[in-house]
């Protein structure tokens, strides 16, 4: 969906503990811009909301089909399901997303919701194919990230390794560095 005027609901997932950070400023700017255009914006501030990013035994038991997903995971999945576009805004730590966001992916993008396997063992990504925007705040420049392969590494890890795996077209995602 390239035309933002057709959007009805946006989800902004922000992963930064400091509410005065550049990441939060960017999230607020995007939120105000989308709201002005008539888009309903939901902000998932993972630190403020106290999301438990570490995998728990209950997550493993749900993966094994022995119990239902925890309520917090189901809540995050419902947020994602409502969205027509999702923004992930985060500081770049060690050339990737912070562990907090990685933990969100690990817990929320669960089997049978984000992906499954058919009878022949073939992977089927089951998430709806919506635009996903990665906005990483970091020192340096976009050209520096490109030159050293960091942009490509994040693209490979997150865009292909998570989003495409779960059915979201990797071409609809873009990682950009905001310094």
UniProtKB/TrEMBL annotation:
Q: Write down the Pfam families for this protein, in alphabetical order.
A: Flavodoxin_2
**What GO molecular function terms would the record report?**
oxidoreductase activity
EC number from the UniProt entry: 1.-.-.-
Q: Which UniProt keywords apply?
A: Oxidoreductase
Domain Flavodoxin-like fold per the UniProt entry, residue ranges: 9-169
Describe the family membership recorded for this protein in Swiss-Prot or TrEMBL.
Belongs to the NAD(P)H dehydrogenase (quinone) family.
Q: Which PANTHER family match?
A: NAD P H OXIDOREDUCTASE-RELATED, NAD(P)H DEHYDROGENASE [QUINONE] 1 ISOFORM 1
Name of the protein this chain belongs to: NAD(P)H-dependent oxidoreductase
